[in-house]
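Hi support team,

I'm filing this because I wasn't sure whether my run with coenzyme A finished correctly. The job status page said complete, but I'd like someone to confirm that the output block is well-formed before I use it downstream. Pasting the exact inputs I used:
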Amino acid sequence: MGHVLFTRSWLDAPTRLVEILVLSPLSVAPEHQGRGIGERLVREGLARLGGRPEPLVVLEGSPAYYRRFGFGPAGALGLRRPSTRIPADAFQAIALPTHEPWMTGTVVYAEPFWALDCVGLR
Ligand SMILES: CC(C)(COP(=O)(O)OP(=O)(O)OC[C@H]1O[C@@H](n2cnc3c(N)ncnc32)[C@H](O)[C@@H]1OP(=O)(O)O)[C@@H](O)C(=O)NCCC(=O)NCCS
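And here is everything the job wrote out:
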């Protein structure tokens, strides 16, 4: 019916790589869309991150959709897109309790994103 994954990736921060999470992929089967399943997957997923060490969750997607979960422009946190193919407005992030101000820099996707060329809105 639907699924969500938080993929381990990296932030190329000024002093070292920091492990972060990318909210992707997220999908709901077409015949089940528009009934709140996607929203529940994201909310439940975020709730289960409590206690994890990663300081950030980033994603690329519609700001209108992800704003409701607390995501905002990733640039405001000093983050740069992993690819310029991602529209600037689509690049969003949420800071988790372990986030510290020095954690800025370029997001580096995990290898499958590059191997399967999953960059960019489809
Ligand atoms: C995006 C997706 C996961 C949403 O799942 P869903 O179960 O249909 O979503 P919900 O029922 O929880 O929420 C519906 C809301 O999402 C909005 N929405 C759905 N897809 C959207 C999209 N691509 N862009 C913007 N808004 C979208 C709907 O307009 C609706 O908004 P409203 O609550 O303000 O009326 C689903 O449409 C999907 O699988 N799409 C194809 C894959 C995809 O685009 N994944 C996300 C990659 S970032």
